[in-house]
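Quick note —
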Amino acid sequence: WDPWETHYGEVARQMATRGDYISLWWPGSPIDPEVFWSKPVLSFWLISLSLYVFGLGHPAPGTFALSSRPEWALRLPFCLMALLALVGVYLAVSRFVSRRAGLLSVLVLATFPMFSLVARQAMTDMAFIGPMTLALALCALALFDDQDRSEERRVVKDVRSRWSPYH
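Predicted structure written out below.
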């Protein structure tokens, strides 16, 4: 597991407690002498929003150690970001190759050890990977898909059903 998960969770808890969603600092951090200044804000906004959804909007110190609910609250947004990446891969591959290839691509990507490990951790990587993968897939669809294949598939299906000896 990423050793920074607890730091990111504490910074998000500090943000929620202070009501300050711009300053990413942790007063009294054990790793820095005065304050811990953290990374880009998107990850912490996702964690803070998830804390509110899970009913941990203004948690007191020590609350994170009392149940597994904070662990779900910290990690769920990044699991959802991983789903965005999987949707992006499926959309692009299923449109350009086939639905079967799209499903196989998603299955392969979801079971890559590094992808599945990063998808279950509260760290900054998946907050950028998920939306970026979906954006690139949608960009590829917009730039390179010139024809509507849904009608083409319907016509092929109708022809197969008329001429198939098994039907």
